[in-house]
Amino acid sequence: MNEKELYQKCMTVVSKNEGGYVFDINDPGGETYCGISRKNNPDWEGWDIIDEYKKSHTLKRYDFIPGSYLESLINDFYEQKYWRSCNLFGITSPEIVLNIFDFAVNSGRSTAIKKAQVIAGVKVDGICGWITKNAINAFPEQLFIGTYRAARVNFLKSLKTYKYFGTGWLKRIKNTHF
Predict the structure, then answer these.
(1) Among the four 41, 132, 135, 178, which has the fewest Cβ within 10 Å?
(2) What's the pTM?
(3) H-run or E-run covering 131
(4) Are 86 and 80 in contact (CB under 8 A)?
């Protein structure tokens, strides 16, 4: 599988995990669309389309706005902000790649990579280079995934917002597979 195919396969799962429109007062990211936080990404071009749509439509929780241009903006956002910066291509297990990528989208690139590095037993610097990839590739797939998911759960439980979003986050982890 080439990198583009792997990215698209991962995005299919991540997109389901992220959902549509949400504006939850308990979310520090504020208004989000497909997981893209307005507070953290105020200059994202998709907000213009969403704001225009909201002038004539009421958006409810998890609603999607039709249109291929908005979909392409979402895809480009995740590819640039998370996929490229995580640099996961070269990890031989697509399932491991998916778990790291989904954690990066949910909790930040650096956090996701650092947790993987701790498990792999390499220098923890938040950069997924060949030393990290080779160490991950040397791990039995299911052992790595199980240990990684446990570390992810522990991290999420440490967050103040776990009481609001913990159930959804745990469901997300359970559903992060091909």
Answers:
(1) 178
(2) 0.95
(3) helix 130-137
(4) no
Q: Are strands 36-37 and 21-23 parallel, antiparallel or unpaired?
A: unpaired
Count of residues making up the chain: 178
Task: Check: CB of residue 3 under 8 Å from CB of residue 92.
Answer: no
State the Cα–Cα distance between residues 74 and 35, nearest whole angstrom.
Answer: 9
Per-residue pLDDT of the chain (178 residues; tens, 9 = 90+): 999 999 999 999 999 999 999 999 999 999 999 999 999 999 999 999 999 999 999 999 999 999 999 999 999 999 999 999 999 999 999 999 999 999 999 999 999 999 999 999 999 999 999 999 999 999 999 999 999 999 999 999 999 999 999 999 999 999 999 9
